[in-house]
Amino acid sequence: MATMKAIWWTGPDKIELLDVPVPETKPGMVKVKLAYAAICATDIHMVSMGAMNAACRDGGQPLGHEGSGEIVEMGPGAEKSGLKVGDKVVLFPVAACGVCENCKNGFRQYCTNAHMCHTYCQYAVVPPSGVFKIPDNADLQKYALVEPANCVIRGMDLSPISHGQTVLVTGVGGIGSILLDMVVHSGAAKITAADVVPQKLENALAMGAQYTINAKTEDLVARGLEITGGKGFDHIFEVSGVPAAAPPCLDLVARCGTVTYFAVFPPSYELPVNLHDMFMKEARIQTVFTNPDIMHRVINLMPRLQTDKVIGKVYDLADAMEAIDMFHKSIHPKILLKCN
Asked: What is the pLDDT of residue 160?
């Protein structure tokens, strides 16, 4: 039996690089040869703290949900999707069934019969509903970031920025950098990036941020109020997922402003909210998940994104454990795995 390399969650706080069987292409399914997969904090935090209410199954389970590749095989009936062998594609984490109540109500991202599409591997066999064609000339390394960029557009759809509104992004790692890039395109003003890693703040300035705040050496609230003339920010996107970074955002939001908690926080964390203070500001709290229905918009936008400033390092899949160790050092915005 042919085998492939894959990253699996094998036990409590345990990730391993394994040799596993190459999946067979079943009727109605599509086999994708992965080219690149991006390491996402959500995958790591599923293992370390049960993010997304995840729990390791008996026998372990594959990881990864951001990736690009090429279709190499079509199961009988899959051709009805319009996809074909040789197509360059990206994967969406949830291949929806289309018939459950959530799907019928327009919430395919919450499909109760979903097939999960994993990408930390060499080959994936998935339903066509989780596969999206990209241009024939697409750079597969660049397009490996389509899925996180999809989450960003979802967040900006839920918290739309009007021209001239002030924006703060806290946490400019992988997804934070993609978000910052789109904020730069949005017509926002006084665009500010906050982080604790100087290299990431330098990168944020190179991407178009007008101000930076080192949350380790500066008072985030005091500096933010200084930048905004005491008004606070119209939009704050908290992307670090660090519990200590969450409460100051409520102190920094402007009147009628919005705090979007974009990151996946630890399941046990509870945000302290003074509702009277929020009432006096008429401010809003928003969270973000994802939506497959906007994938086409993301694919259209990819050529404009500064992915060269987001992708910090690329490792071969065989060196995945070294890549995960580097992820924990929080130096590079985004780390990619070259899968084949």
From this structure: 97
- pLDDT band, very low/low/confident/very high, at 30 (cuts 50, 70, 90): very high
Question: What integer best gives the mean pLDDT of the chain?
Answer: 97
Residue 261: strand pairing partners: 238, 287
Are the C-beta atoms of 62 and 11 separated by less than 8 Å?
no
Evaluate whether the domain defined by 152-287 bears CATH number 3.40.50.720.
Answer: yes
- For the CA atoms of 275, 277, 279, 282, what is the dihedral angle to 10 degrees? -120
Residue 105's CB is within 10 A of a number of other CB atoms, namely 9
Pick from 138, 140, 147: nearest CA to 33: 140
Residues of the chain with CATH 3.40.50.720: 152-287
Enumerate the CATH 3.90.180.10 domain ranges in the chain, comma separated: 3-145+305-338
In this structure, the number of other CB atoms found within 10 A of the CB of residue 128 comes to 21
Cβ neighbours of 7 (radius 10 Å): 25
Cβ distance 338 to 315 under 8 Å? yes
Backbone conformation region of residue 245, classed left if phi is above 0, alpha if psi is from -120 to 50, else beta: alpha
Backbone CA torsion sign across 14, 16, 22, 28: positive
pLDDT single digits (tens) 288-298: 999 999 999 99
148-199 confidence digits (pLDDT tens): 999 999 999 999 999 999 999 999 999 999 999 999 999 999 999 999 999 9
**CATH fold for domain 3-145+305-338:** Quinone Oxidoreductase; Chain A, domain 1 (3.90.180)
